[in-house]
Design goal:
Radius of gyration of chain A: 14 Å
Helix content of chain A: 10-25%
Order of helices and strands of chain A: EEHEEEHEEEEHE
Mean pLDDT of chain A: 87
Low-confidence stretches of chain B: none
Mean pLDDT of chain B: 97
Largest interface: A-B, 18 and 26 residues
Helix content of chain B: 10-25%
Low-confidence stretches of chain A: 113-133
CATH architecture of the largest domain in chain B: Roll
Shape of chain B: globular
Radius of gyration of chain B: 18 Å
Distance between the termini of chain B: 33 Å
Strand content of chain A: 15-25%
Number of domains of chain B: 2
Structural class of chain A: alpha+beta
Distance between the termini of chain A: 33 Å
Number of strands of chain B: 17
Shape of chain A: globular
Largest sheet of chain B: 9 strands, mixed
Strand content of chain B: 35-45%
Oligomer: heterodimer
CATH superfamily of the largest domain in chain B: 2,3-Dihydroxybiphenyl 1,2-Dioxygenase, domain 1
CATH class of the largest domain in chain B: Alpha Beta
Strand order of the largest sheet of chain A: 6-4-8-1-2-10
Largest sheet of chain A: 6 strands, mixed
Strand order of the largest sheet of chain B: 14-15-16-13-9-12-11-10-17
Chain lengths: 133, 303
Amino acid sequence: MAGVTVEATGVTVALRAGETILAGLARAGYAYRAGCRRGGCGVCRAEVTAGEVEHRGGVAAAALPAAEAAAGACLTCRAVPLTDVVIRLPDDARFRCVAPLLAGLAGVSTAAGPAAGPGRKPQPGSLEQQGEH
Amino acid sequence: MGVMRLGYVHARVTDLAEARSHYGDTLGMRLVHEEAGRLYYKAWDEYDHHSVVLDEGGVGLVKLGYKVERPEDLAEFEKRAQAFGCLTERMSKGDNLAVGDGVRIVLPSDHVLELYADIEVTGTETGTLNPDPFPRHLVGVGVPRIDHALITAEDPALSERFFAEVLDFKVSERVVTDLDGGDTIGTWMFCTNTPHDIAVINGPNGKLHHFAYYLTDWNDILHAGDLFAMDDVSVDIGPTRHGITRGSTIYFFDPSGNRNEVFSGGYMTYPDFPTITWTADQLGKGIFYISRELNERFTTVLT
């Protein structure tokens, strides 16, 4: 079973078989900027800095050009890790724990602190304390 | 003479099998024709041959078709579009399945719009003689008809001028940055008696924000939302209400990420309808009246 680690947060979540990165992180109580969740808009893009993913389901070339996918970019709504992976989200992705209860249930490990804690401290001027509307 | 309504939306999808499940089983449109890489759908209360065409490969809009009253209107609209500075070309009967001669116009926003007067009329299941109010065995949401599209343009004011001057659309609502000579960042326009048959907001040229289906009322919107949950449809927002148009709504995504909407309510418009103005500082309320805040996706997720 593959796990996903979100770079610079220390958050690692064990994914279920066939689960996308976005779905697995959501199941574990974490949220970040996402759009259509169907591979069409590119908003949930991340860079895979270690490990390997496979996109399952349609991904529009306009949302993720093949060359960029080959260079390590993925759309997390469609990307299913084939190995343990490390991803880097954009600075403005506002990655945050929105449901500590779920983080606890999912057994999230964080390098920085307790499983139920926030993924990282808010950056000055960031919007990450704001909820998704 | 005049443009009567939005007749068809022609879009791209990454996967036809998933699109078939969404547009057919969840929304309940009827598949009327299929060919290699392309599906044609119609909704139950539409008399013409089709209203949604889906091409396999990519996402976004291929073109919008608007039906005009009379064949002779085409030449007049063509002349006006050319005078406006748009590229136009004639399309022949059969270029689009079941659609007659027409005029294809590249809008100032790079979107392609087709005008046509004739399309094969295949009627509805309920018919026009002592009809029942709806077909007995609707599937899923059972959408009755398409309603409007929202597209993005670098210069919405220019798009507004095009639809007004070339196609005789009227402006029902407009969002401006400033009441005193500010920029237009969004425009909602009608050619029917609905609040909008096309809308344009500021954004990249050539992109689709959403296309919408009309539902009868708020209860149907909620019912649609329930079905979206059952079918794991990716929901953007809603059910809620728009300040602009006053309609109730759910925005959701098809399996390729194109945004769809189910829309109901709104007011009636007439040629003497006064234009309603919104200021940009109230845009959140204008778009999502109840929460009064734009969600992040509203301006970022386009196909």
